[in-house]
Amino acid sequence: GSNVLRMSSGIQIKTKTAAQKNKTCSPESQPKPSDKLNPKTIEPFGAYSQPPSAFAATYARGGIPCRLVHGSVKHKLQWDCLPETVPFDPLLITLAQGLRETKHPYTFVSKEGFKELLLVEGAAEKVIPLLPRLIPVLKAALAHADDEVFERGLDALVQLSAVVGPSLNDHLKLLLTNLLKRLMDKKSREKVTVALQKLEQYGGKVS
């Protein structure tokens, strides 16, 4: 009898993922094949026993001036005021801390907010003074065991490099051990290789 059960539960799982696919939500909400193998997804209560992180607490009390707007096709961020007018200190650092979040909507808000802040005019002048504080925060994301957190940290680092160029070079050595460690990992190797090429391209040849 157990075989029949296993079959039917397998079928239910399949239809569920198909339904989610049709909804075209953001990629984060679709189960990836790796999730099934990932023991972390099986601990439903593990995540809730921790106190809210600094980012979650700040978000809850309205300290992040942007929020998630659920779109029918694609989520987007809505800012309470123009991103150009937002003080980068401390918001950019808070958003970078949020890259370590593993729960929705924090994952989306921090990743997208970080990216959009870096796109505002004059971002470079605002970001460069923050690098000494920003880099340790990104390092924590790059050192995180969760692959998605690592990838968000990696994307953020490349976005940062595109904005500040060679100013990042002095700080990169703090991050290289984390990047090289992931370079040894088959899953991340390609992403890290591409990121390193971009960092070199934006930073010029590191003297």
TrEMBL record:
Positions with biased composition (Polar residues): 1-32
Pfam families with a match to the protein in the record: ParcG
Annotated region described as Disordered, given as residue ranges: 1-39
InterPro entries, A to Z: ARM-like, ARM-type_fold, Parkin_co-regulated_protein
Top-rank taxon, per record: Eukaryota
Protein name: PACRL protein
Gene: Pacrgl
